[in-house]
Write a structure and sequence with these properties.
With about 525 residues, this protein is an alpha/beta fold. Helix content is about 55%, strand content about 10%. It has a nine-stranded mixed sheet, with helices on both faces. Strand 5, helix 5 and strand 6 form a beta-alpha-beta unit. Bound molecules: adenosine-5'-diphosphate and (4-amino-2-methylpyrimidin-5-yl)methyl dihydrogen phosphate.
């Protein structure tokens, strides 16, 4: 009999990564995907198919469930497990796929090798466009939910899986290695598993100690994306793994991007953990609050607030790309005086912007966010300003503060002085977000530019991955602040964001306005005023 930790054979050469079948719904994206959970039942409702159905529904999916096993369990432990005849599972699966187009499958507790064979055969025949496998082995309570001998069956199932979501114990068992002692070791194991089986791996670090709960999405080609969330101080973690994987499967069918799906699911899970105590279920590890967004209908869900603000600043985004400054910068025809003016104003702006980021750091509710903003403030001074000064040494120019710069920094400082944390975050965000968008587009244009470009080295640094990542974090922080805040605070955030977005347009327009003569025009400062 195999023990849990004996070594599985690694494949000699990695199989090709699995792709969704052509023209599949995964590629098109469906708003209400039909998601099938193949898992065990938890009658206390926190884990297994019950958790999956809630997680799928909470994300707008149509949930279906085929039962592999029935457990008698509650929040304190698993009392017994009953596995119905596998022929009956095969019938359930057949009944569903004969009638219904399945957009995604989430697989949870399978229990025995026979169950795995039935599921593997069915997957090989039906080839659903999204398959997420949560390799359930042990419940939160410590009770075993998989026969040790079934591990080989699990490895074979990886052949039909797009994403596998092991916790650190499950990852070690799948590889036949000792359990990782820290996140770096777990990441190394995730890379091995992904490469050996040509599958994407979501390494979950929830069981490792630390203030942060780290997860990493590891692709079979070695690409890694790390996701982090503050550890919620709660005993109510029953069903976190089930719920996360079911949410990711649903989101993947909607969005067609694993990293986006994991980010959304993790952010949803954090609030479900934070509000789990409101449910008051059981004496042990209670369930998470799957429907927190539905039940608190006044609060925006996930990224709804940032998406709304992004749409609301469409006029400003279009205006930026229509400006002579941006068009000429992209084409390489921008006059060096205009470029120098922009650099000088940006340098002046950044030194105040850094102070406002430091204010966000001072107001931040968690150490992680405090560090994030402090890092941004430092980066502004050390990296960005140094870069500007270096460029400015080649383009001497007037270093006096221009009118747009003055209005923009006055606005930021006003919010920093009297605004809430959410308002300060919303005020500083357009500088990240619109700059990242401009950078992305200009960098793309630059890559297709043939010949010598006078601003080539500047544009080459424009689309910086770290900056794009920081922008995503800043957006997520704003969404979290919006969810926590009152409707009144969200109005303040919306106004702060809108003013800054308009000043971004004016800022890019300022060099031409300056050289064309301010006096000849009506003052081109923010249409919204400040
Ligand atoms: N206390 C917590 N606070 C925030 N996130 C958590 C907490 N515990 C677990 N998570 C997250 O829940 C998910 C499940 O992780 P984990 O507990 O490692 O797996 P499993 O539930 O399968 O044992 C991961 O995204 C992990 O980061
Ligand atoms: C039927 C069933 N499936 C899975 C789990 C694991 O869930 P968790 O590890 O999150 O408690 C469980 N306890 N019961």
């Amino acid at each position: 009999m195999e023990t849990l930790l004996s070594a599985p054979p690694l494949l000699d050469s990695p199989p090709p990564a699995r792709e969704a079948s052509p023209g599949s719904r995964q590629q098109r994206g469906v708003s209400h995907p039909r998601v099938l959970s193949i898992a065990g039942s938890d009658p206390s409702g926190g884990a297994g198919i019950q958790a999956d159905i809630k997680a799928i529904s909470a994300h707008g999916g149509y949930a279906m469930a085929a039962l592999t096993a029935l457990t008698a369990q509650n929040t304190t432990g698993v009392h017994s497990v009953h596995v119905p005849p596998v022929a009956f599972l095969a019938e359930q699966l057949e009944a569903i796929s004969a009638d219904i187009d399945i957009d995604a499958v989430k697989i949870g507790m399978l229990g025995t090798a026979e169950v795995m064979t039935v599921v593997g055969d069915w997957l090989a025949r039906t080839r659903p466009p999204v398959v997420v496998l949560d390799p359930v082995m042990v419940a939160t309570s410590g009770d075993e939910l998989m026969a040790p001998a079934a591990r080989q069956g699990l490895l074979r199932l990886l052949e039909s899986t797009h994403l596998v979501t092991p916790n650190i114990l499950e990852l070690a068992v799948l590889l036949g290695q000792p359990q990782a002692k820290n996140f770096d070791e777990a990441l190394g194991q995730g890379l091995q598993l992904a490469a050996a089986h040509g599958v994407a791996v979501l390494v979950k670090g929830g069981h490792l100690p630390g203030e942060e709960c780290l997860d990493a999405l590891v692709q079979h080609d070695g690409t890694v994306e790390v996701f982090t969330a503050p550890r919620v101080d709660t005993p109510n973690t029953h069903g976190t793994g089930c719920s996360l994987s079911a949410a990711v499967a649903t989101l993947q069918a909607q969005k067609g991007d694993w990293a986006v799906s994991v980010r959304h699911a993790k952010s949803w899970l954090s609030v479900a953990l934070e509000t789990a105590h409101e449910l008051n279920v059981g004496e042990g590890a209670g369930p998470i609050n799957h429907f927190h967004a539905l039940w608190d209908s006044a609060a925006p869900t996930l990224d709804a607030f940032s998406q709304q603000l992004w749409q609301e600043c469409e006029v400003q985004r279009e205006a930026i790309f229509g400006l002579d400054f941006i068009k000429e910068l992209a084409a390489g025809t921008l006059h060096s005086d205009h470029f120098a003016y922009y650099l000088a104003q940006d340098a002046l702006y950044l030194s105040t912007y850094s102070r406002v980021l430091a204010r966000a750091s001072a107001l931040a509710p968690t150490e992680v966010e405090q560090k994030f903003w402090a890092g941004g403030a430092q980066n502004c001074l050390e990296v960005e300003l140094a870069l500007h000064r270096d460029w400015l040494s080649h383009y001497p120019t007037d270093m006096r503060q221009g009118p747009v710069t003055k209005h923009y920094v006055d606005h930021l400082q006003g919010v920093a002085f009297s605004g809430s944390y959410g308002e300060v975050v919303a005020a500083v965000l357009p500088c990240y977000w619109l700059y990242a968008e401009v950078g992305r587009v200009l960098h793309q244009d630059y890559l297709s530019f043939s010949g010598e470009h006078p601003y080539g080295t500047w544009l080459a640094t424009y689309a910086d991955d770290d900056f794009a990542q920081a922008t995503e974090t800043a957006v997520a922080i704003m969404d979290a602040a919006a969810r926590r805040g009152s409707a009144r605070e969200r109005e303040g955030m919306r106004a702060a964001f809108a003013h800054s977005a308009q000043y971004e347009v004016d800022f890019f327009a300022a060099p031409h306005s300056f050289f064309d003569g301010w006096a000849a025009k009506s003052a081109p400062i923010g249409a919204l005023g400040d």
